[in-house]
Write a structure and sequence with these properties.
Keywords: Methyltransferase, RNA-binding, S-adenosyl-L-methionine, Transferase. Pfam families: RrnaAD. One of its GO terms (molecular function) is methyltransferase activity. With 268 residues, the protein is an alpha/beta fold. The chain is 35% helix and 21% strand. It folds into two domains: 170 residues, Rossmann fold (3-Layer(aba) Sandwich), CATH 3.40.50.150; 64 residues, Helicase, Ruva Protein, domain 3. Strands 2, 3, 4, 5, 6, 7, 9 and 10 form an eight-stranded mixed β-sheet that branches. Strands 1-8 form a two-stranded antiparallel ribbon. Bound molecules: S-adenosylmethionine.
Length: 268
């Protein structure tokens, strides 16, 4: 749009690396507070940059792994956190860095370009040790992820096993230099009560439902279990006549737990 004579064109801020660093302590604190790490925890900061998140994480006493691809950033960050023996700075690509096998947390301001790849690594595998994550992602991406009924089976799988919630909008002015779009704090918390066999049940329910989303939930579940599921559906607050494609991942998870019969739906 042409600039009017009264408002001079704003000078673009030079940003040779294309990186948008977090410049808000309160946002960093908000991310950390959702995961509330302590000395017994392991936290990974993906795309650690100069440490806007790594530095306050270091002070929590948790074991911190800061993963950063750019060796120049790694050198600077390593100096910054050299007084903190609980922090390990690693030069690596977040898309291939081996994830911890034991319970871990993630707090990170990740590049928009790798958001999907990273979430796929964290949330898709049937066996994952992720407990909680607080991430800064692009606003529109966070909206798609937290919609009540996801359009794809993959998103439903993520949202069935993890509670995904949009904590807050993070305005572009919270970064240096400011990006062109706003971001969001996306909170991720593993649902408790979903044991291995309930997860298998959830996977089977989602596969069947997303194959024929217009079919009723009653027919979808009957095909899988060979039983009339009326009572189980009612107890989970699901209308048996509703189309399978209208059921939320949280409801599918509750139903999977009920059908599995071994565990109670709850969250930690
Ligand atoms: C949005 S900046 C965030 C930096 C820092 N965490 C902050 O909040 O200021 C993303 C960082 O991720 C790094 N990065 C980009 N792609 C990466 C990848 N595939 N693996 C690891 N780090 C990556 C960039 O070099 C940059 O430092």
């Amino acid at each position: 749009m042409p600039q009017s004579g009264h408002s001079p064109a704003r000078k673009p801020v030079p940003n040779p690396s294309g990186v948008h660093f977090l410049a808000s302590h309160s946002i960093a604190e908000s991310l950390i507070s959702f995961c509330s790490p302590g000395p017994a925890d392991l936290v990974v900061d993906f795309g650690a940059g100069f440490g806007a998140i790594t530095a306050p994480l270091a002070r929590t006493g948790a074991r911190v792994i800061a993963v950063e691809r750019d060796p120049a950033f790694v050198r600077k960050l390593s100096k910054r956190v050299s007084q903190h023996p609980n922090v390990r700075v690693v030069t690596a690509d977040a898309r291939s860095f081996p994830l911890p096998r034991k319970d871990f947390l993630v707090v990170a301001n990740i590049p928009y370009s790798i958001s999907t790849a990273l979430l796929r690594r964290l949330l898709t595998p049937k066996v994952t040790a992720l407990r909680r994550a607080a991430l800064i992602v692009e606003w529109g991406f966070a909206k798609r992820l937290t919609t009540s009924v996801p359009r794809t089976k993959e998103l439903a799988w993520w949202a069935g096993r993890f509670d995904l919630s949009l904590e807050r909008r993070v305005p572009a002015r919270c970064f240096r230099p400011a990006p062109t779009v706003d971001s969001a704090q996306l909170n991720i918390r593993r649902r408790a009560g979903l044991g291995r066999s309930a997860e298998r049940a959830l996977w089977a329910l989602l596969e069947t439902a997303y194959r024929a989303p217009a079919r009723s939930v009653r027919a979808t579940v009957a095909e899988l279990t060979g039983r009339k599921p009326h009572r189980a559906l009612k107890s989970c607050g699901i209308d048996p006549a509703a189309p399978a494609g209208s059921v939320s991942p949280r409801q599918w998870a509750t139903l999977a737990i009920a059908l599995d019969g071994n565990s109670q739906p709850s969250e930690r």
